[in-house]
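Bumping my old thread because nobody answered last time. Still need a sequence for this structure:
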């Protein structure tokens, strides 16, 4: 009952934020822009998002192997597409992560290895995004004249980096108190496993390159969507604006980021001196293209064959 109420609350938050976002723009003008949609650019955006799912699978597989789970690339790609489906029907990215854990574990990957690999994969993605946010700050802050907005942006980037640092440090401290509670014991093990992965320069570099490439594909996909409706947003501006929006959208307070993403995109476009309506229409189309990719994953899930026979298990790496 409690989970149902929480899900209902997130649905209400999504709908409320969407309603507020829609009230800020001219709906008639929005509809007219959509009627002149360039389908070619949308197909390009969909292709980039599909490639992004494949790259995410490549990163996850590298991490899963480091966690002790044998996972073929084909199985990783199929599972990631299924996860994309659950990302669209459940709160934020939590649904997709849970799907990856369950499918890998039930396929013989082991519950610990599956859960650890997904957690580390999620942290790797957020850290790369935070680095992009911080790296672009000298230019982004010139777009933001509001001191409050500047502080919020700094907190977003610094907070994500600080969280990752704490995550790594937890496995080094070896505090006795952390071993008293099962969730914290697992957190320590995940932290130690992540540190072991980082100690391999080749693995760490590969994961970092893939992570940055994934976010670059996201930004390029959104740029294609902006081109499809002739929105006045250059690729450089989107490079500065989109990473903070994505970071905010990962907060699990809505369904698939709907509402939160639109509100954040409108604010980002407004601060950049662009039309709020452009931010809204680009965000909605991005959500719809992500939904289309998720629908493809849903089709893979419905067929039932996620190639689990290609998943084998080895022992977890020692935490000592």
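Sorry it took so long. Here it is:
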């Amino acid at each position: 009952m409690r989970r149902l109420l929480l899900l209902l609350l997130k649905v209400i938050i999504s709908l409320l934020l969407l309603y507020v976002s829609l009230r800020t723009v001219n709906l008639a003008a929005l509809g007219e822009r959509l009627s002149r949609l360039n389908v070619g650019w949308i197909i390009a955006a969909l292709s980039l998002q599909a490639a992004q799912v494949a790259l995410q699978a490549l990163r996850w597989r590298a991490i899963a192997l480091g966690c002790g789970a044998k996972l073929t690339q084909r199985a990783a790609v199929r599972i990631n597409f299924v996860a994309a489906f659950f990302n669209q029907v459940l709160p934020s990215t939590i649904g997709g992560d849970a799907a990856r854990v369950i499918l890998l574990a039930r396929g013989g990957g082991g519950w610990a290895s599956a859960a650890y690999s997904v957690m580390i994969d999620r942290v790797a993605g957020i850290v790369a995004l935070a680095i992009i946010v911080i790296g672009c700050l000298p230019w982004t802050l010139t777009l933001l004249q509001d001191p409050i907005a500047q502080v919020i942006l700094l907190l977003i980037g610094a907070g994500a980096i600080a969280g990752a640092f704490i995550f790594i440090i937890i496995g080094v401290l070896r505090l006795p108190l952390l071993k008293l509670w099962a969730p914290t014991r697992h957190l320590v093990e995940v932290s130690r496993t992540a540190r072991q992965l980082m100690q391999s320069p080749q693995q760490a570099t590969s994961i970092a390159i893939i992570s940055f490439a994934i976010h670059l594909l996201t930004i390029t996909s959104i740029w294609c969507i902006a081109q499809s409706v002739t929105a006045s947003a250059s690729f450089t501006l989107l490079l500065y604006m989109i990473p903070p929006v994505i970071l905010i959208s990962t907060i699990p307070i809505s369904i698939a980021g709907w509402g939160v993403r639109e509100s954040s995109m409108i604010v980002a476009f407004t601060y950049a001196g662009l039309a709020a309506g452009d931010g809204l229409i680009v965000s909605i189309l991005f959500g719809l293209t992500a939904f289309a990719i998720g629908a493809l994953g849903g089709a893979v899930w419905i067929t039932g064959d996620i190639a689990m026979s290609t998943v084998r298990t080895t022992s977890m790496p020692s935490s000592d």
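The beta strands are 69-71, 311-313. Let me know if any region looks off to you.
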